[in-house]
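Hi U.,

Before I forget, here's the chain from the pilot set. I'm dumping it here mostly so it's searchable later in email.
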Amino acid sequence: MIIKEKQEQFASEMNKHGILYRIVQITRLQELADQINNTLEKDISDSDFAEYVAYAYNFQLLDKFPEMKSVIVASQYNPCHRVNFRYRGKNHEVLLPPGYVKFRSKQVNLQRTIGETLAPLGYKCERIIVSVKLLAARTGLAKYGRNNISYVEGFGSHHFLGSFITDLPYEQDYWQEAELMQECTNCRSCIANCPTEAISDDRILIHGEKCLTYFNRNPGVFPDWIKPEWHNCWLGCIKCQDICPANSQFVNDTESLPGFDETETEILLNTNEFNELPDSLKVRFEQFGFPELHGHILRNLHALQLRTS
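Structure:
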């Protein structure tokens, strides 16, 4: 089977699995790293920036697999999730935005699907850690919203991304400047709907020091300037995505996770530390698939309760 036929077969299989993707030559990774070093992300402190770059670009994998020729950036649909809490005789639905629930297992499954598709064709893939959102934008797979979130045609912002290196030769090197969605040209909805004013009209990069997601994904007490009614998700924030016209067909598409009854909710709201929860409730948190954030979402539930009690 010639290379072009293999590429076409790979494309067909990806389509069956609902996976959208682009392939670029592997040398594009260095261009990506160079770009990130010259962006507004240097607004953060030098030490934080160095730590970010060390995490976002791990090129040791390239030395281990010198035969790799290409980079695949792939996207799959990923809806919001909702969890119901029974509290004081009422049901309270709490949202988890796209990109959180079982993120790691979805990444594993995506790599497995791509790997199992490539293997019969005589190729392989390995996951590589890069700034995958920027990679998707530079390949044209995604475009930026004014809220600095990546949007994929057919998925909106309700998707997740994965990046992989492969020895499958690229047929066409998809590479371009990152673009802003056309819908954003005359739209300011996300700016108006952001409770913390983290989105501005003068740049695409959000003001991370104001973003509610930043605060509820990190430890510590919420600053006094964050109003209780601003909390709207168990983790992250959905305000700029909910209001976005590019998400109009996806905004009501959510998947339910097992909820918590009255007794369980009472325990959660009266426990300050995750380690203090009974084992039966700790196990329940495994459904979310992000163990490193368990303590944060317990705190965030308390913050949401200020609004719903």
